[in-house]
Structure formats: structure tokens, C-alpha cells
Fold:
Amino acid sequence: MTKNQKTEELRRILIVGSGGRENSIAWAISKNQSIEQIYVCPGNGGTTHFKKCVCLKPQSEDAKTIINECQRLEINLVIIGPEVPLAEGLANKMREEGLTVFGPGKDGAQLEASKEWAKELMIENNIPTAKYWSTGSKEEAIEILKRFNQPLVIKADGLAAGKGVTVCDTIEQSKEAIKDIFSGKFGSAGNKVILEEKIEGPEVSLFALCDGEKLIVLPPAQDHKRLLDGDNGPNTGGMGAYAPALLINEQDLKDLTDLVLIPTLKGLKKKKIEYIGVIYAGLMLTSSGPKVIEFNCRFGDPECQALMPLMGEEFASVLFACAKGNLENAPKLTFKSECSACIVAASKGYPEKPQKGDKIYINLESNSSLQVFHAGTTIDEFDNIITSGGRVLSIVAQGENFDKAFELAYSSFKGISYEGMHFRKDIGYQVRNI
Ligand code: AMP
Ligand code: GLY
Structure:
């Protein structure tokens, strides 16, 4: 670390991504007084609603063009939101050009980009996870299924936009899922298949900010992956979240840090990987203890939207310190002791065939405990905000308890409309009186 790096002030940030996660990160870091400008590349229809935030839409989204833009704009911190650019090595290319980046390199992103790689890391480091088998052959996969003689969870090894996992109730379904993977449904993500023992229990998302050596654990959050109330319907990217997840108390969080997060970081270090960014452990709390069902190399979406309003103003400085491998000298990250509720509104047809182009009407009174984070939205030629993706926006609210937070979030939907808007009515049922 040079002296210059230590004293550099955080002024200009670029966030890569266009989702609700990136919108909420932009909102959270905009609170930091020293920051002059936040560019979100490419951003969405809500980016400019926050002070200091602008969209950056370079002519091309290739790494070289974005790096040139970062240099031109004198960006001192890049935050990479989504997994795909991380898995493609955008962080490596940026670091090679001298940029300071929050987000792991291609090697570390394998935590998410290869389920087999992540499983091996878990086994090597005694991190509890479901039993599994992996193979690159359809015949062998079917053979394993026959041998086990029980429905198994079938996963494409690589990145499949959250669609590569099939939780099966019958052996026949597992067989079909194996065939789908090897038929090329997920492209090269399906070159290998993971067959996993089916486990049961509530799920919780655990996040740590890492600087390669140290980590800071954030309040746990709970996602709602199914489309419909009562956890029914197809899996989605996530229809709502809340934080902190009460399933885990402070002691549990310490235990899980020791059981999962620290061994993961140690395992990465053993492989000579300097992991800078978020470790996201998706856990299932089973009757025989917590087990990791997946790792991701970025913030969860929509968990991030629920978490950001709980972050203290020093959040941006902490990410900056992480990116510099210097958490030791970061200000202490504080968390508001409120309950935060996030409800995602989706577009007509989501998740199969999201309809785009519907005009969005927003008419909400300003309230410091309420945020609207945009995701699949854009601005049309007449300056209207229109839908442009499956998960359109989320309403996030805070309160002294979850009943109050959810009441504010749900009642705010009366101020938002677009054709085909739908959202779950039971987000947070685990912690509310409904
Ligand atoms: P993933 O993309 O790996 O998070 O999986 C998507 C969802 O599938 C998870 O959130 C779980 O609900 C479910 N799932 C994944 N692995 C298992 C498993 N081994 N047993 C039961 N459910 C699972
Ligand atoms: N909310 C689940 C995910 O971000 O993968």
C-alpha cells in the first residue's frame, strides 16, 4: 500500500449493473458526504432519482470501453454488482489498469460460477453442505440417480441466471432435469451436472464484505424465491426480502461466521485467491444444523435492497477500504437497529415472459423510512418511466418492528401503478402477524 493510496479521498464511484441491487447501492453510498458523483453503468430508469447519481451508457459494454470511461472520469472506486461480469474477469482487467475495484476476480468468482468448484472448496474446508455427486456425462448422472434411488436436486454447474436448479419431488423429475441440462438448455453452464441430496429447512442469506484477509458480516436477510404467496409457483430471482432475519440471533451469526465464512475465506486464500468483494452464503437451517446450499460472489437481489437502508453512512468508505485490501483502517461499519422490508413488483408475464414498455406511475410522499428502488425500468423518448424487465422495482420500508415496516411498504403500493403489476402479499410472513 502506497502512502498515496492511504490518503486518497473517495470522490467518484462507478457501479456496474442495472438492477435493483445496484440502484440501492447507489442510494446508500450517495449519503457519504465526500462523494461528488456516482455513475451507474448502465443504470436504469431510477438512477437519477438519487442525488449525485447519473447513468453512464458507453457505446459498448466491453471491458476496455468501461475501463477507458473509468479513467476519463477519474473514478476512484468501481463496484461490480452482478455475477456475470465478475465471472468474466472484469475486476481482473480493471485492476490490471490500476483501478480500485470492489468485487472478486475471475478466480474468486468461481464460488458462484462453478457449483462443482464451490462444493470442492466446501469439502476441503469442512464447510457443512448437502451430499453431492458431479459428472459431465448424462449416462453417469442417470446411473447415480438409479443407485441413490431417491429424487435428487439437479443443478447445472455454471451460471444459468438463477434457473439452473431443479428441486425434484420424484426420480422421474430428476431424470428429466438431467436430460434438460445435457440437451443444452443452459448452454455451456450445463457441461457438468451436480446431483445433490435434497435437504429441508428455512433459508437465510448471509453476507460478508471481504478485503482478501478480513471480513465484516452484515445482518442476515431472508429472500422469497417463489413467485406466489405461500411459497408457491415457479422460482424467481426473488420477490421480496427482509432484514435482519430473526431466524439467526447474534450468537448464531458468530457461530456461522466461524463455521462458514471464515473457512471460506481461508479456503480461498489457500488457493492463493485474494478475495475482495461480497461472499454470499445461501444457507438452509436443517434439523441437523446449517448447511450451505450455494455461494454467490455478490450481493443478493433483493436482499441488498432490504439491507442498504440499514447501513451507516460510512458504508461507501468501508467498501473503498475493502477494495484497497485495507479493512483494518476502515471506519467501523454501523447498522441501524431497524427492521427493513422489501417487496418486489414484477411485470406482467414474469418470470416466463415479462412484458415490457408499460408506463409506470409513481406518486408517493417523501418519507425517510421509505425507498423505491428501480430495477427493470427505463426512460422512453417522452421522458416517461416504463417497464423494461421482469422485476420492475421494489418498495422498501423501515420500522421499529416488522409489522410497521411491512405496513408502510405495502400501503405505499397505492402510489404505484403500471399494467400487469403484481407482487406477493405475504413477504415476511415469517416475522409478521398475518
Ligand atoms: P440455488 O440457485 O443453488 O440457490 O438454488 C435455488 C433454490 O433451490 C434454493 O434457494 C433452494 O430453495 C433450492 N435448493 C438448492 N439446493 C437444494 C438442496 N440441496 N435441497 C433442497 N433445496 C435446494
Ligand atoms: N436473491 C437471490 C440471489 O440474489 O441470488
Observations:
- Residues 250-270 form the longest helix (21 residues).
- The domain at 132-197 is CATH 3.30.1490.20 (Dna Ligase; domain 1).
- The longest strand covers residues 276-286.
